[in-house]
Specification:
alpha+beta; globular; Fumarylacetoacetate hydrolase, domain 2; four-stranded antiparallel beta sheet; 14% helix; single chain; twelve-stranded mixed beta sheet; 290 residues
């Protein structure tokens, strides 16, 4: 099931997108919940099966609404994983980040992006030209947690997943290098496009899907989640070690090879560039850079 957050007639709604992507039906929930996007829905109703309890409004054309990010304002930072596809780790092994690639299979590299980075499908990513000249794209599958837990074992990890979405982990490479850590270069306002909606875990297999990314219609990235260095249960186990995960928490699972920094010569994003990400079974996330 595909669930979207959106605006219609200046009001926020959460609704079910049809299988063919042509229509949407608003779920009849309290306006205060709809204001939070899917975060309020997940918090209140928990298990995906409870969505069947909710009445729906009549279907209307998807093109008549303005999509929001599925979780427009996460309650806290987004967990992100670096170097999690073998080919991507290899393409950066000769870069300034080569030291991070030496023991790539030992432990996941985890960093965060602040909530203000999140924007929706179709919104513009703002290039802070006075701060960075090396903005890069990273197409990623993201897990959305549905059940609270701490020290979650791999065997039970997938029972904590509510659904999945797409994120673009936009990165200022020069800022990332300048500070010798990743949070600042990843956390500029608008640097985490997310969407176009959330697909529930009961209808999607995140362990076996394809991630692709185009820049101005040029295919740059293509990878299979079967090729993750650390699989989804391992990422959930790692992020929950001594840390409570809450419903609505987001874990971005890493990006395939083909980022701008990994090309020879590197090719960074410019004003007017359009980045389109597709994940089989979810949909398309597309944004213009300004």
């Amino acid at each position: 099931m595909r669930i979207a957050a959106y605006i219609k007639n200046q009001q926020r709604h959460v609704g079910v997108v049809s299988e063919d992507g042509s229509t949407i039906q608003a779920l009849k929930i309290e306006p205060a919940l709809a204001e939070q996007g899917l975060l309020g829905l997940i918090d209140t109703y928990g298990d995906v099966s409870r969505l069947a309890e909710l009445d729906r409004a009549a279907a209307e054309p998807l093109g008549s609404v303005q999509l929001l990010a599925p979780i427009p304002r996460p309650r806290r930072n987004i967990f992100c994983v670096g170097r999690n596809y073998h080919a991507h780790a290899q393409e950066l092994s000769g870069s300034v980040f080569k030291d991070n690639s030496k023991n790539v299979a030992a432990w996941p590299i985890v960093f965060t992006k602040v909530p203000e980075t999140v924007i929706a499908h179709g919104e513009e990513v703002l290039l802070p030209a006075d701060i960075t000249e090396q903005v890069d794209y990273e197409a990623e599958l993201a897990i959305v947690i549905g059940k609270r837990g701490k020290n979650i074992g791999k065997a039970e990890a997938m029972s904590h997943v509510w659904g999945y979405t797409i994120v673009n982990d936009v990165t200022a490479r020069d800022v990332q290098m300048r500070h010798q850590q990743w949070d600042l270069g990843k956390s500029f306002d608008t640097f985490c496009p997310m969407g176009p909606w959330l697909v529930t875990a009961d209808t999607f297999n995140g362990a076996d899907t394809r991630v692709r990314c185009w820049v101005n219609d040029e295919l740059r990235q293509e990878g299979q989640t079967q090729n993750l260095i650390f699989d989804l249960p391992t990422l959930i186990e790692t992020c929950s070690r001594g840390i409570t995960l809450y419903p609505g928490d987001i874990i971005a699972t890493g990006t395939p090879a083909g980022v701008g920094m990994g090309l020879n010569p590197p090719r960074y994003l410019k004003p007017g560039d359009r980045v389109r990400i597709e994940i089989d079974g979810i949909g398309t996330l597309e944004n213009i850079f300004r």
